[in-house]
Amino acid sequence: MVSAPITTSVFDLFKVGPGPSSSHTIGPMKAAFDFRQRLTDLQTDLQQQADAIHVHLYGSLSATGKGHGTDRAVVAGLLGWQPETTDPDKLLDLLRDPAQVYAIPVGNRTLSIGPQQIHFERVRYDSPYHNTMVLRLADGDDTLFSEEYYSVGGGFIIRKGEPEIAPGSLSVPYPYGTMTELKAQLITHKITLDELMLANEAALTGRNRTEINQRLDQILDFMHKAVRRGLRHKGILPGSIKLSRKAPILFQQAKGMSQSSDSFLIFLNAYCLAASEENAAGGIVVTAPTSGASGVIPGLTYLAKHHFHYDKATLRSGMLAAAAIGFLVKHNASISGAEMGCMGEIGTASAMGAAFLTRCAQPNGTIGAIEAAAEIGIEHHLGMTCDPIGGYVQIPCIERNAMGAVKAYNAFLLATSGAASFQKISLDSVIKVMKATGRDMSTKYKETSEAGLALSATEC
């Protein structure tokens, strides 16, 4: 009996939107868009009485929100923009002029919002989640209407007071909440992981198999476009760090070393840096599972397509395996840097990448090898801090994407060496350890820029 089955869509895990952080850009943009929609349903007298909209940011949304562009994302959402269709250049232009304000419709009138209405709160706020934002419709100091939202990683948001989805209200044909339960479903029904994932996705979204495959191809295309853009773009990334892009240099170096055994790793590093640098620049990326980790799987899938020459069907199967691992971490721990540190982002992405590679290389392989690869990927990221310098998703985030991909490849090699059955630690066990580690980790090391490498800002 599965007490709380996973009912997340593959396409909620892999979301398209602007960088640099799904928790700080995509999530707040969605929350602000939701608030805009709710304003239209208010009573006319409240709409007429209001004179301002205020946004209060808490936790890491406050601590690193400036560097992550949270203020721009909130304004974009209030303007009615959606993550997948946002023009990244226009997003970067928002709030560039501190004197400019933006008109937000409230009933048959508009209210202006600018930097003065966005408050980066430094006080401790009583909230069940680290990334909290409160949006208020106000008349002077009086609050006429407000909503509280939590950005919980990967662009997922929760609205305070919103009824939780009751267990069983969303049903899937093959429910599971742990890897143990997932393996039991595969054995009991004598089906493949692909078949299980496709059947559950169809039940959740109403898409048929052809539509699911088409969307998977689109997600891969978005990923690979980010890689290609990053391989072309040179120069300095936005922000005060003035970090130079490295991906084009590495790519040219790799092409000149085609006979060297090192070229393979340099190509992989270049692809991961390319997508991650695009994310840091506020470009369109895919959460995999977050924007901060959006270089790992795009880099690995780009390598798989262009170096291993896997066909579309194989790449899709790998993506489904990666999603299964991402679901398990999100369901039983967290993919949020503010909750788990960087092990929740790069650690999860590395585990997902290891599962992707294992599934692609072994189309008739066992779920045991996929589990072993994912477990190794997470195990060797346990305790990794999230300590971005200056609040920008640049140092150490960009290089960590490349390192996470290399670890994913090594985890795949270790898991497919013929000794997967010798693995002593299960994926379920390591996810429990991950959750406990995140709970015990000091808040300073979880996306606040108050400790670790973030204190090296004076050297940049």
TrEMBL record:
Reactions listed under catalytic activity: L-serine = pyruvate + NH4(+)
Pathway: Carbohydrate biosynthesis; gluconeogenesis
SUPFAM superfamilies, A to Z: Serine metabolism enzymes domain
Keyword Lyase among UniProt keywords: yes
GO biological process: gluconeogenesis
Enzyme Commission number(s): 4.3.1.17
Any Pfam family matching the protein: SDH_alpha
Cofactor(s) this protein requires: [4Fe-4S] cluster
Keywords of this entry: 4Fe-4S, Gluconeogenesis, Iron, Iron-sulfur, Lyase, Metal-binding
InterPro entries listed in its UniProt record: ASB_dom_sf, Fe-S_L-Ser, Fe-S_L-Ser_mono, Ser_deHydtase-like_asu, Ser_deHydtase_bsu
Glycoprotein in keyword set: no
Residues annotated as signal peptide: none
Ranges where the Serine dehydratase beta chain domain occurs: 9-161
Molecular function as annotated in GO: 4 iron, 4 sulfur cluster binding; L-serine ammonia-lyase activity; metal ion binding
Domain Serine dehydratase-like alpha subunit, chain residue ranges per copy: 189-454
Domain of life: Bacteria
Family the UniProt entry places it in: Belongs to the iron-sulfur dependent L-serine dehydratase family.
PANTHER family registered for this protein in UniProt: L-SERINE DEHYDRATASE (PTHR30182), L-SERINE DEHYDRATASE 1 (PTHR30182:SF1)
Alphabetical list of NCBIfam families matching this protein: sda_mono
Record-given protein name: L-serine dehydratase
The organism of origin for this protein: Spirosoma aureum
